[in-house]
């Protein structure tokens, strides 16, 4: 992996949130950013997947072509990158450095291969890893379908990948400090906030 400007990004430990697609990561982060404006910086990933309704380029993701993505891989522009559901996703060095320059706490929302790369990265500051779990497979499926953003084929891929994410989170190699089950939204959000902001949140 490419080196990062650690002197610029080591003042706050980054937070890495992971968990199956549909477990509620975006929902939690949106609430957190609304409640603490300016405190956190969302690491805007690059992806080759198409934007969903309501997603904005540069805010939710940097939407790029496969060629653009692979070009940045070639230039060693990523802290980590992986494939998910047939698309490429990656955290660029620039995304995390931009957040550090603003003095914000960097938050990454990434899948498990990216989690492993970040956990083993030679120069990226040691993050705190949080895993958000759905209450059950059945509820996850209902929520993914209820979100209404993905085609059937994408939902099937996400449900299959969810099993791998859950197995990894429960394995000894997982770097997660905490697993939060997102059953009741208020309860789970309170736990997420406590983990990220502190017990006095
Ligand atoms: P992710 O970012 O992990 O893919 P989302 O935040 O998009 O997941 O959540 C998936 C769907 O589940 C969304 O429609 C969201 O509104 C819904 N959701 C999230 N948390 C809860 C909860 N605790 N109870 C019911 N629905 C939830
Ligand atoms: P979605 O398509 O639902 O936005 O994201 C699919 C999966 O890709 C989620 O698990 C999300 O956490 C993950 N993801 C988003 N950005 C990145 C990234 O930059 N790197 C990696 N490894 N995974 C990412």
Characterization of this structure:
There is one protein chain. This protein is α/β, with parallel strands linked by helices and 201 residues long. The radius of gyration is 16 Å and the shape is globular. β5 and β6 form a beta hairpin. It has a single domain, classed as 3-Layer(aba) Sandwich (Rossmann fold). The protein binds adenosine-5'-diphosphate and guanosine-5'-monophosphate. Guanosine-5'-monophosphate binds next to β5, β6 and α5.
Distance between the termini: 35 Å
Strand content: 15-25%
Number of strands: 9
What is the level 1 CATH name? Alpha Beta
Number of helices: 8
Number of domains: 1
Question: Which regions have little confidence, pLDDT < 50, spanning 5+ residues?
Answer: 6-10
Helix/strand/pairing category = alpha/beta
Q: How helical, in percent, are the residues?
A: 40-55%
For CATH, the homologous superfamily is named as P-loop containing nucleotide triphosphate hydrolases
Strand adjacency order, main sheet: 2-7-1-8-9
CATH topology: Rossmann fold
Report the average pLDDT across residues.
Answer: 93
User: How large, in whole angstroms, is the Cα Rg?
Assistant: 16 Å
Bound molecules: adenosine-5'-diphosphate, guanosine-5'-monophosphate
Q: Which overall shape is indicated by the principal axes computed on the Cα atoms? A: globular
SSE string, helix = H, strand = E? HEHEEEHEEHEHEHHEH
CATH architecture: 3-Layer(aba) Sandwich
Largest sheet: 5 strands, parallel
Family: Belongs to the guanylate kinase family.
GO molecular function, one term: GMP kinase activity
Pfam family, one: Guanylate_kin
Organism: Paraphaeosphaeria sporulosa
């Amino acid at each position: 992996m490419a080196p990062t400007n650690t002197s610029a990004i080591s003042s706050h430990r980054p937070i890495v949130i992971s968990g199956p697609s549909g477990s509620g990561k975006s929902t939690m982060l949106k609430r957190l950013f609304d409640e603490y404006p300016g405190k956190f910086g969302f690491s805007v990933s690059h992806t080759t997947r198409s934007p969903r309704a309501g997603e904005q380029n540069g805010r939710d993701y940097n939407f790029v072509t496969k060629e653009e993505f692979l070009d940045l891989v070639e230039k060693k522009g990523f802290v980590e990158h992986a494939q998910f559901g047939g698309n490429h996703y990656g955290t660029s060095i620039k995304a995390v450095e931009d957040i550090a320059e603003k003095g914000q706490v960097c938050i990454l929302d990434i899948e498990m291969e990216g989690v492993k790369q970040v956990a083993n990265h030679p120069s990226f500051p040691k993050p705190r890893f949080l895993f958000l779990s759905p209450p059950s497979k059945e509820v996850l499926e209902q929520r993914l379908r209820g979100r209404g953003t993905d085609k059937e084929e994408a939902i099937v891929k996400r449900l299959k990948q969810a099993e791998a994410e859950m197995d990894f989170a429960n394995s000894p190699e997982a770097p997660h400090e905490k697993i939060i089950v997102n059953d009741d939204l208020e309860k789970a959000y309170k736990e997420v906030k406590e983990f990220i902001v502190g017990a006095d949140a």
